[in-house]
Design a protein that fits this description.
Shape: globular
Largest sheet: none
Structural class: mainly alpha
Distance between the termini: 21 Å
Order of helices and strands: HHHHHHHHHHHHHHHHHHHHHHH
Helix content: over 70%
Strand content: under 5%
Number of strands: 0
Radius of gyration: 23 Å
Length: 519
């Protein structure tokens, strides 16, 4: 792999999806195995600590301020021209910015250290062998170190070589999990497990960063940096991205903190199991859709607005179909999966599961919207919205958590999304990218949302009448297959005559062929 990518956009997308989907499934299985052993030797309070500190460090990562989006967005055009010099200038600037960010996060993290104890509602919940400040410092070190090397991975993304990132990520997770499992089984020491897991991750990321440097020797041999005008343009865009970064961080990074403070550390531990499953589901969806921002950015350089809109409709149909399948399947099987995997005491009330699935639908259904908005630089036109969304989410989540408990935290996220980004993203795309009316989008979205609600009702009936027996792995598989069969049958019946359905079949066939060739 030397030089920039010269493969076709379709071939890149299929390869990214095939490799990304397979590696993500393997990561899910690794995560299942590790979480099972973790809870066999430790308790949900330890998981609660993991969830809490991960969220805190996510908030501290606000220091990045969205500069990654502002820089990566600028890679697409010079890569399409094979302009090694300009890409090298961008990477030099990127490296300097990330070193500064690492220093800022370290400083902010150390300033927060004295207040860590006060984030837990009941200090008696903290296991006796855990030094909270030491564990927090380990999480902080892990976050800071990630900024030293992984900025280079953005070059692979912009060059439509995300499949290498998928393989790298799988390697990192495999070695880290195996190391942590060995330490956990031998010592049952939570802190030592963290130390070796973080050290292993740091070493492997460093080695892979050296590998990327060798693959793009010409890019990394450039010593020049960007002009003052180019740096100013990036910082202008960064101000727009900053609002998105703040909003997204508050939106996704405060749920565990609110749960810990308003409910309990154990509730955060319970949620972390569902959060891990849902996170993996979302990541599989992103991988199967091909991490398409780079492909979309490439298409924008060569397509008319009409063709660009047709591409969006096809990709959005694929995204909504996948969202429909994922959410119905998740609702059907996730509670029984947690029950058979960890035990009945780790299962949420059904109403909480329904709320989490609604939140999952709103998130996954936006993957293609987000790819097109980032590729076209439309984030600069939507600066204030993320702050409004974050404020609504935090306020509503705290109030609802007080009155209805766990479900209230996630209802806050749903309400804030419906009030802002839900309608704002398609409006921006259709007004500025496609330059046409937005009702075309809502007809398709409304059809799939209605189908999802009806299919969930059908699955609920099946679970009551057909699958009403004790949880088992066989039951989980049967529920997942029943959900998939219902979605595919109903959706095919309704959409098989459409152009978008033919596109779905074509992509599925290419993806399957790609998987089989790599099998």
């Amino acid at each position: 792999m030397s030089g920039f990518n010269t493969e076709s956009r379709t071939k890149n997308a299929v390869r990214i999806s095939a490799v990304g989907g397979l590696t993500q499934v393997m990561k899910v299985l690794l995560g299942f195995f590790y979480r099972s052993l973790f809870l066999r030797f430790l308790t949900e309070e330890y998981l609660g600590i993991n969830g809490l500190f991960s969220n805190i460090l996510q908030i501290l990562s606000l220091a990045e301020l969205g500069v990654t989006t502002a820089i990566v967005y600028r890679f697409y055009e010079p890569i399409s021209r094979k302009d090694t010099l300009q890409v090298g200038r961008l990477m030099n600037f990127f490296r300097r910015v990330y070193l500064a960010i690492a220093g800022i996060i370290l400083a902010l993290g150390l300033l927060a250290l004295p207040f860590i104890q006060h984030l837990i509602r009941d200090s008696a919940e903290v296991p006796g062998d855990v030094n909270l400040r030491l564990v927090y410092c380990l999480f902080l070190a892990n976050t800071v170190s990630s900024y030293l090397f992984t900025y280079k991975f953005s070059l692979l993304t912009a060059d439509q070589k995300n499949y290498y990132i998928s393989l790298i990520d799988l390697a990192v997770n495999l070695v880290r999990y195996l190391t942590q499992i060995a330490v956990l089984v031998l010592t049952r020491n939570y802190t030592l497990t963290l130390v070796l897991g973080i050290g292993t991750t740091l070493l492997i990321n460093y080695l892979f960063s050296l590998w990327i440097t060798r693959q793009y020797r010409e890019v990394f041999s450039v010593r020049e940096t960007l002009s003052r005008e180019e740096r100013k343009a990036i910082f202008d865009d960064t101000r727009a991205c900053m609002y998105h970064k703040v909003g997204a961080t508050v939106l996704t990074g405060t749920d565990s903190a609110v749960l810990t403070k308003m409910v309990s550390l154990a509730a955060t531990g319970l949620y972390s199991n569902y959060a891990m499953l849902i996170m993996h589901i979302q990541q599989i969806a992103v991988q199967l859709l091909g991490s398409l921002t780079a492909s979309v950015g490439s298409a924008l350089q060569n397509m008319s607005r009409t063709d660009y809109h047709k591409l969006f409709r096809k990709m959005n149909f694929l995204c909504l179909w996948m969202t429909n399948l994922i959410v119905v399947g998740c609702y059907a099987a996730i509670d029984d999966l947690v029950c058979v995997w960890l035990g009945e005491k780790y299962v949420f009330d059904r109403s909480v599961t329904l709320v989490l699935c609604a939140q999952l639908y709103l998130t996954v259904s936006r993957i293609i919207n987000n790819a097109f908005i980032n590729a076209d630089g439309l984030f600069v036109r939507d600066k204030i919205r993320p702050l409004i969304e974050a404020a609504i989410n935090l306020a509503v989540s705290i109030v609802l958590a007080r009155y209805i408990g766990i479900a209230g935290v996630f209802l806050g996220t749903i309400i804030s999304s419906l009030a802002t980004i839900f309608w704002r993203e398609p409006l921006l795309l259709y007004r500025y990218s496609f330059r046409r009316g937005v009702w075309d989008y809502w007809r398709m979205y409304g059809a799939f949302a209605a189908l999802t609600a009806l299919e969930i009702a059908g699955i609920t009936l099946l679970k009551t009448r057909v699958f009403a027996f004790g949880a088992s792995w066989l039951l989980v598989v049967a529920e997942g297959l029943a959900a998939a069969a219902l979605v595919v049958a109903v959706n095919t019946l309704l959409f098989f005559r459409t152009e978008e359905f033919r596109y779905l079949k074509s992509v599925s066939r290419r993806l399957l062929n790609g998987v089989l060739r790599r099998g």
